[in-house]
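Example for tutorial group B:
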């Protein structure tokens, strides 16, 4: 059985992978500064005999495996950056870089990528087409754009042209041993915005001489709440929250200016654009109606991550095949967090999966917790699924392209 061979090969590299994970964990580097992590990846890939390309968005690395038989190209993405925060785990391999921690599991993702490289190079004869392993910087760099976007601009999906993409994340809500995904949206878009309201300041006792930006701001906040309830299709989802309302210095003074800050989460571009357009109209017209002036500064952050139906079907088959029928989880609801893998998914048919590290009777720390850690058995599980998927994908008929 070919699955037995994969299981055996993965078991052989498990310790090697864990060692890499711990080493990466010990020396975490924040977004756009993944210099040592990146050169480590380069040296491992080179030592394994992969074709290696460097310099995508500075620290991005690509390893290419060309199968024995030619064909299309599948991209597998692994993010490498850590977060700027102090680690509180007490692990023997805890961060040595003060103020930086691998609290989102990207150390694990990078180790999974190295494991997949080590396995696929041994299974080269079984691969149809090419596999491009994409080690990406700056996933956590929202809302600056994220490494995915800039690697694409630097041509990572070209030569050989990538036909489909796969991404994953270690996930606490899924049990260890399981992997899950879903068709359509799996991660939200995440857009921050700022509203600046200019009125006319005056003494609190002379409102007739003022244009009160606090009253305008209050009206804007209320009117914005009608977007989700009145403009968004009830079968679609959106979140609009004002998290900051800043204005005024004294109880008896009407200020000149008020600033509001908030965020929008959506799961498709149509709703995202509609929400943006309505925010702009409401902000500008409400202020104008009340004699003031307001401007919206809206930052389109990561878009929603949308999984392709055929790629999900392929992933589903690969997971069930290698891990067993019961270890596939059909995810019901997308997460409200953002993920810059979304940019890849906008370019080519893609699937993004969640790899469980949750425990039955024990709480595990979620990503971005200073106590975050995961069961390293999840590394092997992810490698098995990716290898199986990569081998299966090569055999998808040319005329049955995923789209
Ligand atoms: Zn994160
Ligand atoms: Zn992450």
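The residue assignment follows.
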């Amino acid at each position: 059985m070919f699955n037995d061979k994969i299981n055996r090969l993965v078991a052989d590299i498990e310790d090697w992978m864990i060692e890499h994970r711990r080493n990466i964990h010990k020396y975490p580097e924040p977004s756009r500064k993944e210099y040592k992590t990146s050169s480590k990846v380069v040296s491992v890939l080179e030592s394994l005999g992969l074709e290696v390309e460097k310099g995508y968005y500075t620290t991005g690395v690509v390893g290419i495996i060309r199968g024995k038989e030619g064909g299309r190209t599948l991209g597998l993405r692994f993010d490498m950056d850590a977060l700027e925060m102090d680690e509180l785990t007490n692990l023997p391999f805890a961060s040595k870089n003060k103020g930086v921690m691998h609290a989102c599991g990207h150390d694990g993702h990078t180790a999974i990528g190295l494991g997949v490289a080590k396995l696929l190079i041994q299974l080269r004869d079984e691969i149809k087409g090419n596999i491009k392993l994409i080690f990406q910087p700056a996933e956590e760099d929202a809302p600056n754009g994220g490494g995915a976007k800039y690697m694409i601009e630097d041509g990572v999906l070209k030569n050989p042209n990538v036909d489909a993409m796969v991404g994953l994340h270690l996930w606490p809500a899924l049990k260890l041993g399981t992997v899950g995904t879903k068709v359509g949206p799996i991660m939200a878009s995440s857009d921050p915005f700022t509203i600046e309201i200019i009125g006319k300041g005056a003494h609190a006792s002379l409102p007739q001489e003022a244009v009160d930006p606090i009253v305008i701001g209050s009206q804007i906040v209320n009117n914005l709440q009608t977007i989700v309830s009145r403009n968004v299709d009830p079968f679609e989802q959106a979140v609009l929250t004002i998290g900051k309302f800043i204005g005024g210095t004294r109880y008896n003074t009407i200020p000149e200016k008020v600033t509001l800050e908030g965020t929008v989460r959506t799961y498709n571009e149509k709703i995202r654009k509609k929400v943006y357009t309505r925010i702009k109209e409401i902000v500008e017209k409400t202020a104008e109606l009340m004699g003031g002036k307001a401007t919206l500064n809206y930052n389109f952050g990561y878009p929603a991550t949308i999984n392709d139906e055929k790629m999900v079907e392929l992933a589903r088959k690969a997971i069930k095949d290698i891990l067993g029928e019961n270890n596939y989880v059909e995810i019901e609801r997308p997460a409200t967090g953002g993920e810059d893998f979304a940019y890849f998914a906008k370019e080519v048919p893609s699937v993004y999966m969640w790899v469980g590290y949750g425990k039955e009777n024990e709480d595990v720390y979620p990503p971005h917790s200073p106590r975050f850690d995961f069961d390293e058995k999840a590394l092997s599980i992810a490698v098995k699924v990716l290898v199986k998927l990569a081998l299966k994908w090569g055999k998808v008929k040319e005329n049955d392209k995923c789209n």
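The first helix runs from residue 2 to 26. Compare this with the pattern of hydrophobic and polar residues in the output above.
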